[in-house]
Amino acid sequence: MKPVEIKDSIYWVGAVDWNIRDFHGYSTYKGSTYNAYLAKDEKVALFDTVKKPFYLDLVHRLHNLMDPTEIDYLVVNHMEPDHSGSLKETIEAIKPSKIYTSVMGAKSMAGYYKIDNWPIETVKTGDVLNLGKHSVHFLEARMVHWPDSMFSYIPEEKLLISNDGFGQHWATSERFDDEVDNGELMRQAAKYYANILMLYSPLIAKLLEKVGEMGLEIDMIAPDHGLIWRNNPGQIIQAYQTWSQQKATAKALVVYDTMWHSTEAMAKAIYDGILDSGVSVQMMNLCNTHRSEVMTEVLDAKALVFGSPTLNNGMLPRMADVLHYMRGLKPTDKICATFGSYGWSGEAPKMIAAQLQEMNLELIADPVRVQWAPNHDSLKPCRELGQKIGQAVAAANLPPSCRAIHCTP
C-alpha cells in the first residue's frame, strides 16, 4: 500500500493491522490501523509513528515520498505503544532536529525509552510550529485517553490530526469515510468510544466545548486509528457531543448468562415484558457476546437488565467479567434491574444489584429470582419486571433507539 495524499502535500504513511483481535480486553475482530501522517513543506514533519512490528511499513511509505533523513520534525501526539512503539527506530532513521510533544508526553517518553539526548521540545495549547505554507497549532487533549494526548491542527488545510480521538479499530484497504459503509463506520466509531473513551466523557465534553470556542474550521479529521473523516467530519463531532453527554435512547438491554436455560427463560420473559411497552430491546447472551459488544450497546441504552444463575454462591464468571469491565468505564444515567435462577442458595441477582449500586446506577426493582426450572406461573414476575422497565423507559420520553448505533439522536 502506497502513501495516500489526504491534503495538499500531506500524506497518510501508516500501517494496517489485519490480524489483531484483542486490544487490552476490547474485541478487535475487524483489525485496526496505526495511522501516521507526513507534511511536506519547507520543513517536513512526521506526525506519530506506528506499533513496533509495523515499523518497516512506515519506513517503506516514507521512502516512497522522500529520503527519511530529510524529515525535520517528529510530532508525538500520544505515547501509547500502538503509536510510539517504533519511536526509537524512527528517530534513529530520520534523525529529526526537533521532537515535539506535550509535557506529559516528554515524561512518558523518558519513562518508556530511558533517553537523555533526544531533541525534545515540549508544547502546550496555543503553541505553533511553522513549516512554511503550513503551520501546526497544538491543542492539549488530556485524557483522550492518556494524560499526554494532544491534537495537531493545520488551519491552512482545515485539518485536525486527532490521534486517539474520533478513531475506530477497523482494518480496511480504504482510507476515507466516504469509501466505506457509513452505518458500519458509525458502529465501529461508537464501539471505540464506548470501550475506550466513555470513562472520560466529562473531559471530552469540555474539550469539544473548547474547540467550539476556538472557532476551529475543520473539514477533515485524521485519527490515528481507522478511517479519515473527509466527507462529513461534523457527523463524528456531533456523535461525540452526544456520546460524551451519555444521552440515552429508548432502548433496553437484557444481558444474561445461563447454565441449563432457566435464567434464559427468565430473560425471554423480561424481554417480552419490555416489548409490551413498545420499547426497543436487545437480548445479549454472554455465552456468545463479547464484553466490548455489550458496552457498545450500553452506550446509548437507557435500561440495563442483568441476569445470572447462582454458581458456588456467586454469579457466573462471564457476568462478573462484564460488570468489572463496565465498572471501569463508568456509564451514567441508566435504570437497572437484576434476575436469576437458582437451586438452593440464589445469591447472584443480589450480588449483581449490589455492584450496580456501587456504580451509582439506579435500581428500579428488587431482584427477581426463580428456584429450579421456571414455569408459566414463576415467569409472571419476570414479565412484570420487563413491563416495569419498559414503562420507565417509555416515560422518560427519549428519542428512538438507533439499535446498532448506525445513527445519532
TrEMBL record:
Residue runs in coiled coils: none
Entry-linked Pfam families: Flavodoxin_1 (PF00258), ODP (PF19583)
PROSITE patterns per the UniProt record, alphabetical: FLAVODOXIN_LIKE (PS50902)
Domain Flavodoxin-like: 252-390
GO molecular function: electron transfer activity; FMN binding; metal ion binding; oxidoreductase activity
Cited CDD domains: flavodiiron_proteins_MBL-fold (cd07709)
Domain of life: Bacteria
Family: In the N-terminal section; belongs to the zinc metallo-hydrolase group 3 family.
The protein, known as: MBL fold metallo-hydrolase
Source organism of this protein record: Desulfoferula mesophila
Gene from which this protein is expressed: roO
